Amino acid sequence: MSELTRNQSLVLDALQSDFQPASAYTLLDRLRDHGFKAPLQVYRALEKLVESGLVHRLESLNAFVACQHDGCGRHRAAAFLICEHCKSVTEFDHARVQRAIGASAKDAGFTVRRSVIEVEGCCAACEGRDTG
Amino acid sequence: MSELTRNQSLVLDALQSDFQPASAYTLLDRLRDHGFKAPLQVYRALEKLVESGLVHRLESLNAFVACQHDGCGRHRAAAFLICEHCKSVTEFDHARVQRAIGASAKDAGFTVRRSVIEVEGCCAACEGRDTG
DNA sequence: GAGGGAATGTAATAAAATAACATCTGATTT
DNA sequence: AAATCAGATGTTATTTTATTACATTCCCTC
After folding, report:
1. pLDDT in the model for residue B132
2. Second-level CATH architecture of B6-129
3. Which amino acid residue lies closest to nucleotide C19, measuring CA to C1'?
4. Looking at the predicted structure, is the pLDDT value of residue A118 above 80?
5. What single DSSP character describes residue A74?
6. Average confidence (pLDDT) over A91-108
7. Protein-contacted bases of chain D (C-beta within 7 A)
8. What is the pLDDT of residues B22-38, one digit of tens each?
9. At residue B24, what are phi and psi to the nearest 5 degrees?
10. What is the CA A23 to C1' C23 distance in angstroms?
11. Could you give the percent of chain A with pLDDT greater than 90?
12. Nearest nt (C1') to B63 (CA)?
């Protein structure tokens, strides 16, 4: 990505402050102090950030999260472990998963552009303190 | 699932008429002739159908699709190839993918409850008639 | 400093999902 | 048969998420 605009930086900073998922409207609220007034300001910034790989969209939560790696810009896929108890999100190694998807897709003659991989369950920390 | 109620049957029939994804509001429109008037009638039926595995929710499309297998009730995961050109959706064999996810999750000490696997790209048919 | 493309601002609206509350239906118990 | 209760329904209103449309500003280039 060339260079971030002011709005893009603000949105990215907000997401990187905790690396946890936030909805567009939550981000809007967090950024009102910085002059944000309308959803579109957030959505436009997010669009570019997602395009560049600095931010990922979590389809199952309708939320956005800052990339936890440096180089997601280079891979077209990200995979997430989403803890239903503490709501934490961890990006995980998807090489194996991606290979498996590639094989299945190939069998079907399907060309993959992007994979949405979101695993819902219970993280190690929550499993420890709770049988849920 | 015990037995389908009237509303559940109507929604399931609508989805099984083409096995293609439909939003809740599309279903509502299709079912107005049958007396449906409010979104909740659709959402309530969908909730039960998804729970039983007869219908899957496509997170990346905010849409619902009838299960293409018989026994999805028994597996807690479904994986989809979504063609961005013709909008067709194919449920694919996820055993390999599920194993790969299981391995990655295990490394992180994460307990999987449900996996969202939605692969976006171009199906064989569209690839044939178009370079997109 | 004029022109043009990208980024912004703002208001309005659309699309997706849920909350709240009243009502009905059918099985079970008394 | 009347009382009871859970599950399914109906209906209105509201919330949450996302986009359309259009005016304005900023910055680079010529």
Report:
1. 42
2. 2-Layer Sandwich (3.30)
3. B40
4. yes
5. G
6. 91
7. 8-13, 16-21
8. 999 999 999 999 999 99
9. -60, -40
10. 37
11. 80
12. C16
The whole-angstrom separation of Cα B116 and Cα B124 is 23
Q: How many residues in total does chain B contain? A: 132
Q: Where are the domains of chain B?
A: 6-129
Among A110, A114, A123, A126, the strongest candidate for a mutation testing the B interface, having the largest count of B CBs within 10 A, is: A110
Which residue type, as a one-letter code, is found at position A125? A
Report which DSSP code applies to A60: T
Question: Which positions of chain B have pLDDT values less than 50?
Answer: 132
Three-state SS string over B26-76 comes to: HHHHHCHHHCCCCHHHHHHHHHHHHHHCCEEEECCCCEEEECCCCCHHHCC
Mean pLDDT, residues A81-106 taken together? 92
| pLDDT band of A132, cuts 50, 70, 90 | very low
Q: Is the CB of residue B45 inside 7 Å of nucleic acid strand D?
A: yes
Contact (CB<8Å) A109/B123: yes
Spatial distance between the Cα atoms of B38 and B32, rounded to a whole number of angstroms: 9
| ipTM reported for the complex surpasses 0.85 | yes
Tens digits of residue pLDDT in A32-59: 999 999 999 999 999 999 999 999 999 9
Q: Find out whether A22 and A64 touch, Cβ atoms under 8 Å.
A: yes
Token readout for A119 is 């695993």
